[in-house]
Description:
- This protein is of the alpha/beta class.
- It has a single domain, classed as TIM Barrel (Alpha-Beta Barrel).
- Helix content is 36%, strand content 14%.
- The protein has nine helices and ten strands.
- Strands 5-4-3-10-9 form a five-stranded parallel sheet. The protein has a three-stranded parallel sheet with strand order 6-7-8. A two-stranded antiparallel ribbon has the order 1-2.
- The protein starts with 6 loop residues before the first strand and ends in a 23-residue tail after the last helix.
Amino acid sequence: MLKQDPLIIGKKVFNSRLIVGTGKYKSLKEMITCLNKSETEMVTVAIRRLNLLNISDKNSLLTTINWEKLWLLPNTAGAKTTDEAIRLAFLGRELSKRLGQRENNFIKLEVISDPKYLFPDPIGTLKAAEFLVKKGFIVLPYTNTDPILAKHLEDVGCSTIMPLGSPIGSGQGIQNVNNIQIIIENSNIPVIIDAGIGSASEASFAMELGAEAVLVNSAIAQAKNSVIMAKAMNLAVQAGRQAYLGGKMDPCKFAQSSSPIKGSNFLRP
C-alpha cells in the first residue's frame, strides 16, 4: 500500500489496508506464508481459542508469528454476552503486553448470542464498547449494517466501525450495499468491512465503496490455493483503494465514442 495513503486507527499508522485472520488454515506454516504474501500489518487472533498459560510453546500460533513485524488485534470471538466480551478484552490486552506490544490497546469486539447465523448482538456490543472505551481500549466493534447503531458506536468512542459484508465465513460477499454506503458516508472514523468476503473482487468492491480497510480470513484460509489467494487479496485491496481515490466516471445513458471525431482529417472529403 502507498505510504502516502496510510490507514490510521487511534494513533497507530498502517500502510496496509488488509487485516488478516489466523483461523482455519491447513497448517501454521501455510498461515505464515499467507500472512507474508498478503503484506498485512495487522492480524486478528481469537483470545478464547488460545492457551494463555503456555504462550511460550514453540509450536503455537503466538510464537510462530513475528510480533515485531505484525500488530496484534485480539478479538472476543465466542463471547455471547457483554460480560464475557469484556473479560476476553482484558485478557487480550494483557496478551499484547506479554508479546512485547506494550502500547497495544486494540480489541476487536464481538458479542454474538445468535448460534445459527452468528449475527452480532447490537445492544450487547454497544454496552461493551462504551465500557471498554472508558477503560482505555481502542475498540474495533464488529456490527451489523445498521447506520444508527454505527453512529452510536462512534459516539461512545469506538475507533472504527466494522460492519459485516454478509454472515461470518459464508463467502456471500457484500450484500447490504446501500446501508454500508450510508455508514461510510456518515462516519468520521474508519469503516472496515468484516465478514463474508469470499473473493478478491469482493474485497476490491468493498474498497471502491469507500471502506478504509477489509478483514479477511475464510476467503484466504479455505481457498483452493491459500497462498495465491492471499496475494490476490493484497492486490485487490490496493486496486480498490486506488479506484476509490481515482473517482469513478459518471455513467451515461447512451454510448459515448472514446475517439473524438472533431478535427479528424480522415473524415474530410
